[in-house]
Amino acid sequence: MSDSRLRGVNGAGGANGPIGPGAARPPAPRARVRDGRRGDGATDLRCAGRVVATYVHRPRVPAALSPRPYLHPVRTLGGVTVTELRPADHAHHLGVSVAVPDVSGANFWGGRTYVRGRGPVELDNHGTQEHTGWLLRDPDGCVEELSWRRAGRELLRERRTVSALALSRDAWALDVTSALTNVSGGELSFGSPATHGREGAGYGGFFWRAPASAEPGAPAVEVFTEGASGEGTVHGRRARWLALAGREWTLIFAGANEETRRDPWFVRTADYPGVGSSLAWRERLPLPADGTVARRIVTVVADGRLDRAAAGALARKAVSS
Description:
single chain; 4 helices; 7-stranded antiparallel β-sheet; 8-stranded antiparallel β-sheet; globular; mainly beta
């Protein structure tokens, strides 16, 4: 999708960060639907003449997994799958999605809820993200509107942009922008297990579950930034970009606006491979009535196991494209 078309549908906060209460929002354009749609609640995302991802906008998952749109499978240009869906260790991990474990007590992450003094607890507090309409739906991307609901009550409305851009013969970029507006009529806040006392568990926001290697003796998944390496060093830290590298693939995550770059990275490699951008690392993130919070993550999806220099060059190219 061209930048001009994206600007026409994203509106004031699509990629530029939070919008204050009462800020003017542009009128929604008429939806334009083109190739790429499927009849099963999903859309194929194309780049460089091939399908590189499937965006499932009407998921069929149990309520306890907090149903929400997700991308899976996501593939390199060479055809290597770089996402995992509902793995045995965390059934609520749905490929690439936007998920928050605590929106004023509602669980939009899935699975158990961390309760201070009790640990993870099964609660009947799961929310859903419901697709309400397309503003744009092209082969290389889409803009949609979503309703975040819990027990029939709408808490948030979201305008989400998902697009693909070719960077080289071996790499493309997935651009995801999420703008969440509080329509509940009162103040909301975003939390995480960390804000309830679980040290280091500040997940919530954009999250990518990557595949673990199924081959014995295969190189371990490696994580690094421009100046650090290893889960223990990069987890909970800010960095302009962060790379996760498997045997045949490398994912390079970068915040594409200042608000996103201020969020710490949530990183797992030892227990499972996953990367997220944290909205509420140590403290809750308040969102007043009618306020909007926006985040934008660009992820380079590359064939091969890249080194730091190559990963940094692609990250800079993706964010500036």
